[in-house]
Amino acid sequence: MSAVQIAGCSGAGKSTVAAMLARRGLVSIDADAEPLLARFVDPGGAVVTKQPTAPDLAWLAQHSWAWDPTRLDELIRDAAPATLYVCGGADNQHEVADRFTQVFLLEIDEPTMLARLDARQEHHDWGRIGETREYLRRKLPVLQDHLRSSGAIVIDARRPLDQVVDAILCRTQPIPPRSRPS
């Protein structure tokens, strides 16, 4: 069983990378779209059943986006023998880091993040509602610094999507042996 995490802040392209990997025939998930995996929890760890429509910084400081480790294990097991590409992140990802053979950081700068959040029409309004935009502005450098310092492989996610995916795959896919001349 093998899993690779593709992490980054909102707007980095995690969901888009998940879709591209799937189109290329690989097993991938958009972790945010897995409701039994990713969810908000309160300070005691209880799952939040109703979140505010426009969260403010105070609410966001008291709640975290967390993965259910048991559900993550199930998803990895169900993908076997293929490698599961888990595209997303969570505030408790350090607790499940041992599940991943590699972690990639889709790195972007703040102007790119904000432009992508503004352009996003599908998926969700995260980054455009309540104080989520300011929350993400503050979180971007902290998240990226943490991932870099923990050894994540940095991918410049400002590049075209096919180049981003190729950069990930060239570091995760086995290289076929060269044929020997007869």
Question: What do these coordinates show?
Answer:
With 182 residues, the protein is an alpha/beta fold. The chain has a single domain, classed as Rossmann fold, CATH 3.40.50.300. It has 6 helices and 7 strands. The chain has helices at 14-23, 57-62, 69-79, 110-119, 132-149, 161-172; strands at residues 2-7, 27-30, 38-41, 64-67, 83-87, 102-107, 153-156. The strands form 2 sheets. It has a 5-stranded parallel beta sheet, with helices on both faces. The chain has a two-stranded antiparallel ribbon with strand order 3-4. Helix 1 crosses helix 6 (161-172). The longest helix has 18 residues, at 132-149. It is globular. The mean pLDDT is 92.
> Globular, elongated, flat, extended or rod-shaped: what is the shape?
globular
Helical stretch tally:
6
Strand tally: 7
The computed structural class is alpha/beta
Run of helices and strands: EHEEHEHEEHHEH
As a percent range, the share of strand residues is 15-25%
Q: At the first level of CATH, what is the class?
A: Alpha Beta
- Domain tally: 1
Q: How many angstroms separate the termini?
A: 36 Å
Overall pLDDT metric: 92
Query: pLDDT below 50 for ≥5 consecutive residues: which ranges?
Result: none
Q: Main β-sheet, in a few words?
A: 5 strands, parallel
What is the radius of gyration computed over CA atoms, rounded to a whole number of angstroms? 17 Å
InterPro entries: P-loop_NTPase (IPR027417)
Organism: Streptacidiphilus monticola
Protein name: AAA family ATPase
